[in-house]
Amino acid sequence: MFLxxxxxxxxLIFVMLxxxxxxxxxxxxxxxxxxxxxxxxxxxxxxxxxxxMSHISFSEIKDLPLGDPRIIEYLRRYVLIPPSKLPYxxxxxxxxxxxEQVKQMFGTKSNGFFIECxxxxxEYLSNTLELEMRGWKxxxxxxQPELGKMLMTKNRKAWFANVCLSPYSNISEIEFAVGRFxxxxxxxxxxxxxxxxxxxxxxxxxxxxxVPCFPITTIMAALGVTHVDYLSLDVxxxxxxxxxxxxxxxxxxxxxxxxxxxxxxxxQKAVKRFLESKGYDFLFMHDIDAFYKRxx
Length: 296
Ligand SMILES: *[C@@H]1O[C@H](CO)[C@@H](O)[C@H](O)[C@H]1NC(C)=O
Ligand SMILES: *[C@@H]1O[C@H](CO)[C@@H](O)[C@H](O)[C@H]1NC(C)=O
Fold this sequence. Notes:
InterPro entries: EGF_Rcpt_Signaling_Reg, FkbM_mtfrase. It comes from Allacma fusca. A 7-stranded mixed sheet has the order 3-2-1-8-9-11-10, covered by helices on one side. The chain has a 4-stranded mixed sheet with strand order 4-7-5-6. Strand 1, helix 6 and strand 2 (about 135-140) form a beta-alpha-beta unit. The chain starts with a helix and ends with a strand. With about 300 residues, it is of the alpha/beta class. It has helices at about 1-35, 40-45, 60, 70-80, 100-105, 130-135, 145-155, 215-225, 240-245, 265-275, and strands at about 115, 135-140, 160, 165, 170-180, 190-195, 205-215, 225-235, 255-260, 280-285, 290-295. It folds into 2 domains: about 1-35; about 80-295, Rossmann fold, CATH 3.40.50. The structure holds 2-acetamido-2-deoxy-beta-D-glucopyranose (2 copies). The site of one 2-acetamido-2-deoxy-beta-D-glucopyranose (NAG) has 4 residues, from helix 1.
């Protein structure tokens, strides 16, 4: 009697294990099919993750020391969206206002890496789209969530992060405002961080809520990119603060920097003083943007 029961129990456990195994492999299959592989090796040579974890939230990583591998892991899993493999979908928006300047800097170069921060919808006034279509790789950053959604529909062949670049050297959540313009095209088309010294909203903005901000160096470490040909920075006033978070010690080398200077406190003069002290030469102004080149 006892033996019979024991055999039954063992059989039952065995059957349950089989079912669990089968179930796991079904789950695994659907998971593999539906989850975009964030660590797509071909793009930026991203190494395999070195920390295994099931889930991690922003609140768990925001206070970790910057070198902590869990931050890199978080960025790769939840923040960095890989380049699209689908065909472009454009709405024929106006292109870059700086085509001539980009041509002067890069000629017909077809293999660079760009960072465009303040990427808008990825098409409208995009400074990097032409480079990407020529074969450049890159990273688009746009903190404004609605613009981020629009950007995703364009199928850009660059990485995308719907966060802001931190104006500090830490990870933080910062109050964000979005523009409210009459013209439908410009509705929500601009976002800005509200900092203690940069919180003026006027009537053109409304408060949006907090957005997560990561230092540029942390995001680039997650991408495994240490050399950038072109950084385009248009962040409604915190440009100089973001430049201040760059290491300038060879760990992240940036050759050309374009800065929108009209909202920066101290303007072009302050930007020039800062970048020249960090080994850059001023190239030229065009419209409201200043262009700089690293002294090679
Ligand atoms: C899940 O899928 C991956 C990739 O196809 C495979 O390497 C792994 O062995 C699978 N795991 C299980 C439990 O089936
Ligand atoms: C990040 O640094 C800034 C400036 O030093 C500081 O005001 C802010 O409180 C810090 N944020 C966090 C989340 O530590």
